[in-house]
Amino acid sequence: MTEKSEIKQLDEKQIEQAHLDDVVEKIKTSEKKLKEHIDVAEEDLKVINDAFDDIHVGMDGDAISMDAALSIHAQQQMLDERNNSWHQSQQRLGVLKRLEKTPFFARLDFQEKGEPKKEKIYIGLTSFTDKADHFLVYDWRAPISSIYYDGKLGDVEYQTPDGLQQVELFLKRQFLVENGKIQAYFDTQETIGDQMLLEVLDGKSSTHMKGIVKTIQAEQNKIIRDTKSRLLFVQGAAGSGKTSAILQRIAFLLYRYRGTLTSSQVVMFSPNMLFNDYIQNVLPEMGEQNMVQMTYGQYLARRLPNISMESLSQRFEKQDNPANKNISKFVSDIEFFKILTNYGQLLNESGVSFKNIKFKGNVFISKERIAEIYYSFGPQYNLGNRLDATVERLQKMLRRKVGSEMRSKWVEEQIENLSQEQLKMLYNTADQEFKNGDEEHKFLARKIVMAAMQKVYSQITHLRFLSVSTNYLNFLRAVPKITDLSKYGITDDQWKAYVEDFIEMFNDKQISMDNLSPYLYLYDLVTGKHGELDMKFVFIDEIQDYTPFQLAYLKYKFPRARYTMLGDLNQSIFTKKNSQTLLSEVQGLFDPDDTRVVQLTHSYRSTKQITDYTKAILTNGQKIEPFNRDGDLPNVLISNDEAQAMDNVVEQLKENDQRKFTTAIITKSLEESKCVQKMLLEHGVESTWIKSENQRLATGTIVLPSYLAKGLEFDAVIMWDASEKKFDEDEQQLVYTIASRAMHKLTIIAIGELSELLQRVPEEYYSK
Ligand SMILES: Nc1ncnc2c1ncn2[C@@H]1O[C@H](COP(=O)(O)OP(=O)(O)OP(=O)(O)O)[C@@H](O)[C@H]1O
Hints:
alpha/beta
């Protein structure tokens, strides 16, 4: 830089700083007003609450006058309103506090086509006005802000709710602001300058994910602002910012559809609960509420509270023989979903199984009778209303039985044996009078029968007469008759064994992941449950670990939602699926005109050296472009035995600690992670063993199995035991997933010979 331009920069920086100071002042004024507002609201709340207490005190006994009831209602309404307003003000105050530290991170100078004047705007985390329509800061999600993320200088356009708008862009300036001070600024020609991104990416990892508003890349911006697609399918390399982008997308949607979309209408399915914890701060930091968040397993499991399903580690460590693999593939595919859907239609004519309804140990309404009733309704009925009509009929039958049951022996006996205490309980009032003994007898008999029948009544309403498991079993048994299993490389005997397996597990109150979704789908079909119509956006992260059946089922459960599915077909660690087929199967569920597929190819997480190395692990992977950030070559440490390998780990940890890197030691299995943590302790090294997804990430060194590392990242990763024969050829994607968690430093530990999967990485990509 010449001396002159340096001075110019200095002046310019001072001018920008003065402007920033001015904005901060105004933000502070606004905060002050808001605080006053909050104080008043709190005072009001206190007054209303006190008044509430007075009303309660004024009530005598449990009888409550109409006036009091009305008054309570009015107070409650007021309370709710004030509470809401208090809550909103608090939230806004939180956002302003953050804005105060970094009021804006970018400036745009432009002129709209057809407008006489040039404009200058600043962009920040949220909009800020000091008077009506006078924007000192524009929200990063405002339509105009879009050109900051994807426009070059010159003629550019951006999408507004009314259509495309054209502008000429003269200046795009980025600011690095810390605690209200501009540290540096860059004027960039293209999209977000690499310089700024480099600053951000060079930072350290943490136990919680960070937002990326300041440096959203053009390719990510497309995903974030998409409002058209019914299915937005994002394939992105490890570390390409898929998760980051969708969290920004959720924030964008909540902004764009403010007033019609609430955070409870957005659901995100994530790979495990550890990951949920990892990302939970991103939205609140942008002043938005978190969406509904769960794992697919959790979503299903809550419907079968008494049955335990396969855990992540069981799923991961299951050793499948070839026959099981074929069956697993068959029951996971769309074809199987269709078979089940068609089977559901056949059930409208015959085949649904029921259980006897019992009363006092005897069959009260037999299953055959129930089936007769169920199929007595004409073909215009579907499964759902057929069941409703049956319930109604059964309840009617129950009511009709009351009379005859009242005359039965057990009732007689019970009345005779009633104690005074019990009698009192049965009477409506303590001094209830009857015309004669007969009337009293009848009264008591009815009471007793009704009480006993209440249980049956609720069994009927809760559909206990429907045998869900038998119906599922019937279906499984019918499969060989419906389709030719040999087409899928499955013999009849193998299928029989699969069915037997289901029975055995079910008797043990367990169900496999393969059976779980079809089981619930059949249940939904029979009970006629339609999905959750109110859900507007569904996000599915790590899509490669879902089966097509599961995705089809989710689509059935959220029929009106728009879907964003993201994944890295290079990281299928559960399904080991051929990536392209998954994509085409998913696309088959949606209208092609409403589908958009986006590829993110740049990998931001890791240094160029690490990305080059991990990329070389994949033999036929998706496209990956490293981001040009410099670091060490990955180091591969090969030792003769376990003790030496452990020494290597300890040495590496020391070095990482010195460089202030947080290290994760990632092992293949859960068992190994346990051993490693124990051995570390024997060496006097403290670490946290993450053994279940219900834990939280800890600071300091952690040890965890591969399948829990999904979606996470760490300054440094030590891959424990990439020895020969440790990984099968089809576990390439698993090795890739482990290695690609590293941001700044990757170390591979092996004993004896290095795994074949890593031997093919060219030598120039690592140091030995
Ligand atoms: N535009 C960006 N600006 C700054 N940092 C970014 C950007 N995009 C991604 N990153 C960073 O890159 C890292 C990886 O992002 P993220 O975890 O979202 O990727 P991913 O595609 O979900 O990865 P994976 O599939 O490996 O789990 C994170 O540290 C994230 O903050």
